[in-house]
Specification:
277 residues; mainly alpha; disordered C terminus
């Protein structure tokens, strides 16, 4: 009877268990602990001078980023896109929920509310972290904010770091996941094309992130001025946005060349792919 029940275990939970390592679990516990410490510390930080108050929001991102990087060397029989969904959307969720609960409980305590009010009163009735609400409301904000940011960070990590690494370290597995011809005649060209494609995807994704960051923070008005400012970052980190923007602009043509180069060397599987079993 028990063996029969065990054989009917949900495929979803079997997949989640297979994609969860002991390191991820330990890191999750550490992240939740840090989030709790950060929430407590933020009660007196009305000016937002310490970053500890952001730990609860950041905690799911740490798990998502680690889980996606870990996928590069952790073997799995599951398709790559399925692993992406689990590691970006499922694994960070328990940490996001736990961080939201601790935020709601800690900031909802009467003693905590008194500390928040006293800190805000000493800072012109302003509190950087809890001025707009505490308790259950803060917990809801932490849940959706932390989970949303975590999923985004996981996706960016997967596209920029993990996908190229998987293509390099586990080429045949990746070719099955992407429906490329596994025949000996095309294997070498497909492997090279796959690596170029993943590097192009990594470069284009990183370019978008850097350009969005740089365009809002850079000091230069054009490419030339921003290029000059980029060299000043060694002596003044205020010009970091200029450097990021320049790198992002340079990465765009590199990504285009990689994509075009990949298209000329890859051959799709005429049978529709073997799939990943």
């Amino acid at each position: 009877m028990s063996s029969e029940a065990g054989s009917t275990r949900s495929p979803f939970w079997t997949l989640v268990r297979a994609e969860t390592s002991i390191v991820t679990v330990v890191l999750g516990i550490v992240a939740i602990t840090a989030a709790t410490f950060g929430t407590i510390d933020s009660l007196t930080d009305a000016g937002g001078d310490r970053v500890t108050g952001s730990f609860a929001i950041v905690a799911p991102s740490v798990i998502a980023a680690w889980a996606c990087v870990e996928a590069a060397w952790r073997p799995s029989p599951h398709a790559l896109h399925i692993r992406l969904l689990v590691r970006c959307l499922v694994l960070p969720l328990p940490v996001a929920v736990a961080s939201a609960v601790e935020t709601a409980v800690v900031t909802g305590l009467p003693t905590a509310q008194r500390i928040i009010d006293e800190a805000a009163a000493a800072h012109n009735d302003f509190h950087y972290y809890w001025g707009d609400g505490s308790g259950a409301l803060a917990g809801v904000w932490t849940l959706f904010g932390g989970y949303g940011v975590g999923a985004f960070i996981g996706l960016m990590t997967f596209l920029i770091i993990t996908f190229p690494l998987v293509a390099i370290l586990h080429a045949r597995y990746t070719m099955r996941s992407t429906d490329l011809d596994l025949g000996e005649e095309h294997a070498q060209g497909n492997r090279a094309g796959l690596i170029r494609t993943t590097l192009g995807l990594s470069a284009s994704t990183l370019a978008i992130v850097l350009i969005i960051y740089g365009v809002n923070e850079k000091h230069g008005d054009g490419f030339g001025e921003s290029l000059l400012n980029a060299f000043r970052v060694l002596s003044d980190v205020d010009y970091l946005a200029d450097l990021a923007w320049i790198i992002g602009i340079v990465l765009i043509p590199i990504a285009v060349v990689l994509f075009v180069w990949a298209m000329t060397s890859t051959v799709r599987n005429p049978d529709g792919g073997e799939g990943v079993s």
